[in-house]
Amino acid sequence: MSTVDLMQTPSSDPAVILRYRDRQYAADLIGAAILEFDFFSFIDQHAGISFDNLCSHFEWQTRPADVLLTLCRASGFIANESDGGIVLTSVGREFLTSDSQWFLGPYYQPIADSPVRKDFVSILRTGKPANWQAKSDGADWHESMKDETFARSFTDLMNCRGIAFGQKLAAAVSDQIAGHQHMLDVGGGSGIYSSTMVTRHPHLRATVLEQSPVDEIARKEIDRLGLSDQVHVHSADMFRDPWPTDVDVVLLSNLLHDWDVAEAQQIVNKAREALPVGGLIIIHGAIINAEKTGPLPVAEYSSLLMNITQGKCYSVSEYGDFLRPHGFELHPYRDTTGDRGFLTATKC
């Protein structure tokens, strides 16, 4: 890797480059809906069906079904009526129903044997993530991260985009981070978000909470950047072990979307316990809008996350549901770069 200068920020947005990778599983999810379930024909025949009844009919689990429907809404294939009922759009009816003369189902037939498409059929029914990159000898992402070789490779993957993501986030939260002193970066990977944050805000110190073997990877990366005096690593399991409590900012960057609702809520609960009144929580990543109608690149990325992790891209309203019961005051969502953005909330 070339020498990293965290003071130098990019002048352009890498969204177009990232989308080629972020959307790579979306076609297989739509292919599963068309080829395995004839999903759109069913909606045409049962216009106005509720989400719960839809899941019951197909025996789908809530998390993957929500990802599929969000992708279909963002793509303009379906819409929701005022009572939440699901209906087809003209595009969905004309091109995705099997009795239409313009049916495009055969166009997806070449991917019928795709391992990823087959995985989506299983995930919709079981809710359980597939093996990493659909490898038959692989574990799911969460288990794979306990392997040192995999963890190193995956951390490098996240780190390369995290430099620009972290720099843009650090700049965007400048008005909210002023006056705060110590940030806890939960599941912080290589520590790149902490590193970019303290570089932008020298008054701040940060602690990266990571489990083995990623904790040692983080220590080496932080030392390589010359930031060991400002950024420390706390080795812990974020679910089982106590968190440091001498913090007034908790950063959850690209974290909650790796977990299902119960685990994500547990992380938010622990963030609340760690923060004092007036403390700030920052949720950063790819976030769906409140209506779950897009943005399309985020809905496409959510299909990838749904496949390899226990999570998905949550919406602005879902993050509000995680936070409001704990007395957090939510602040508006803001975009940063690369189809990512953030929400902040203050503990009252």
Automatic annotation (TrEMBL):
<protein>
    <submittedName>
        <fullName>2-polyprenyl-3-methyl-5-hydroxy-6-metoxy-1, 4-benzoquinol methylase</fullName>
    </submittedName>
</protein>
<keyword id="KW-0808">Transferase</keyword>
<dbReference type="Pfam" id="PF00891">
    <property type="entry name" value="Methyltransf_2"/>
</dbReference>
<dbReference type="InterPro" id="IPR001077">
    <property type="entry name" value="COMT_C"/>
</dbReference>
<dbReference type="GO" id="GO:0032259">
    <property type="term" value="P:methylation"/>
</dbReference>
<feature type="domain" description="O-methyltransferase C-terminal">
    <location>
        <begin position="135"/>
        <end position="329"/>
    </location>
</feature>
<keyword id="KW-0949">S-adenosyl-L-methionine</keyword>
<dbReference type="GO" id="GO:0008171">
    <property type="term" value="F:O-methyltransferase activity"/>
</dbReference>
<dbReference type="InterPro" id="IPR016461">
    <property type="entry name" value="COMT-like"/>
</dbReference>
<keyword id="KW-0489">Methyltransferase</keyword>
<dbReference type="InterPro" id="IPR029063">
    <property type="entry name" value="SAM-dependent_MTases_sf"/>
</dbReference>
